[in-house]
Amino acid sequence: MLQIVGKISVATTLVFFGLTAPAMAQSYNNLALTPPMGWNSWNVFHENINEKQIQQIADAMVSSGLKDAGYIYLNLDDNWMAKHRDANGKLTHDPDRFSSGMKALGDYIHSKGLKFGIYGDRGTRTCHHYNNSDQFPGSESGSNGREDLDAKTFASWGVDYLKYDNCESNPNTQEKDYTAMSKALLNSGRDIVFSICMWEYKEWMPKIANLWRTTFDIGPAWISTSWYRGVYQIIDDNNKYWQNAKPGNWNDPDMLEVGNNGLSYEEQKSQMTMWSIMAAPIMISSDVRNMSNEVKELYLNKEMIAINQDSLGVQGHRISDVDGKQVWTKPLRSGDIAVALLNNNSSTQTVECTFADLGIEGEVEVYDAWQKENLGARTSVSAELPAHGSALLRLIIKPVPRKPFKGKAFAIPGKIEMEDFDINGVGRGNTTYNENDSEDHGATEGGSSYRPGTGVDIYKKATGYIVGYNQAGEWLEYSVKVAKTGTYTMSAAVASANSTSSFKLSIDGEDITEEIAVPQASSGENNYDDYNEVEASVSLTEGEHILRFTVTGDWMDIDYIKFCTEGQCEATSAIRQATPAAVQNITAPRLFKKGNALFIEKNGKRFDLTGHRIK
Ligand code: GLA
């Protein structure tokens, strides 16, 4: 008996696939997948910038090793522009200070292997022009209403990054104005990182920008009593938003004050520690033409940078604060955990962290980023830290070899999602796979995945995960447990673009079906998204068995097989159609705490800090 029972067509496949494709999943423009690093002119030079000096900064970024360490963006802040626009209404350079023009400056910056960042404003005048209205009467420096033109102008100069400020603007049109520039940049014909500078976070920002300033301007103090925010005040403010950060979307606690006067050495080191653990954009804003070795070493610390740039993209956050003695953690892609210890007191204090509190059993090796030293295997760390001092550590979590996995057998009657098989010991099914073709068909982590060592291509489609690229002779095995001897209806959701695709099932090596034809997609060639449920009647005996699904014809994709009490297989199209919203909704990894232990939640699934899936 063989019939098609449910037709599961995914008319909007292209749209969903676009959204869930790995490259697109994390950011509105697929840029800034790690926190941007570079240099910005404001904190050090304020409005006093000029062409020669910026070229020298570019040279210094290269010769000092900053560029090679990852500080790629050279960003001009306010006051690069002329007060008035040109005859075509375009923004243009200040004729005295940037006489060669912005295109020439961009070319110079690019010729050094750096990227070119610029500054704009959503209002009528930039902050400097607005704050100094007497010097800039009638200034046309703001982009309001001219977003498209300005974005295209920036693109024509080779701009790679736009910081977009908030002065002389309408408080009721924040979202509208920032969205207008975001769209204009997308349409500008150039990849331009979009950095919102609105001095506070709003929920609409992650959808339209790569980063957003979470606080008012930083200044050279630990705690400020002046109009600007001190470094520690900003750390505290920025921490509130830690769950918003993810690849392509970063909280921006403003530039570094490291290298400028105002902070003690320990405070400067702590700004680096905390910007690293908070996955903050690292924008140096000191005169890097004349750096002290001490400051240069702070900028160039490889481990500090690696923790900041970790591709998992989780913003570390404070997990404890006992009388100003703070512990911060940031999970890393490899399963390692970065830990920052911070002393927010004005006297020396000992800050401790017991790893059991982080959910870590036994000893782990600890690498100290500032001492550049492996501290050996430990169950805790404790550091005597001077006033406002910090330590930055990496807990090196060695993957624990898992015992060979003997998963629970799938229950029959019941449903088997075909992708549910053993991945390096983590998985629900006790399944093996035979591959004729061990090629990775371009499926990558994220939207879809290739399970290393298995040859199996697992794809995330609009309807959920499927096993793809199956060809004749390949098979998948599952351990199943049949509740009761009897006749069952087997229903498989399969898709093929070919008319000669088929499969069969066996139990413990004995065929239980003939070859079952896979219906060809109605729209024919290259369409592997037209799923159909095909049924067969099978006799099964009570107990544990090995079920094998063997591909006997041309290429096919398979989503699931169900075994139901005879004739009771309900069409699942309704359930399957409910899935796409969840599939599109790729969420930021989040850290949460259960008892004393920390876990990561990603895309609705929970993992311990070593990356293993938990219930
Ligand atoms: C605002 C911003 C600063 C800087 C100045 C320039 O204050 O928050 O970061 O760009 O404008 O005028």
Please specify the SSE layout and strand pairing:
Blueprint: E1 3-9, H1 13-20, E2 37-40, H2 42-45, H3 51-63, H4 66-69, E3 73-75, H5 102-111, E4 115-121, H6 127-131, H7 147-157, E5 161-165, H8 174-186, E6 193-196, H9 205-208, E7 211-213, H10 231-239, E8 250-252, H11 265-277, E9 282-284, H12 293-300, H13 302-308, E10 317-322, E11 325-331, E12 337-343, E13 349-354, E14 364-368, E15 373-378, E16 380-385, E17 390-396, E18 410-412, E19 414-417, E20 433-434, E21 448-451, E22 456-461, E23 464-470, E24 475-482, E25 486-495, E26 502-507, E27 510-511, E28 516-517, E29 530-540, E30 543-551, E31 556-565, H14 573-577, H15 580-584, E32 590-594, E33 597-602, E34 605-608, E35 613-614
The chain binds alpha-D-galactopyranose (GLA).
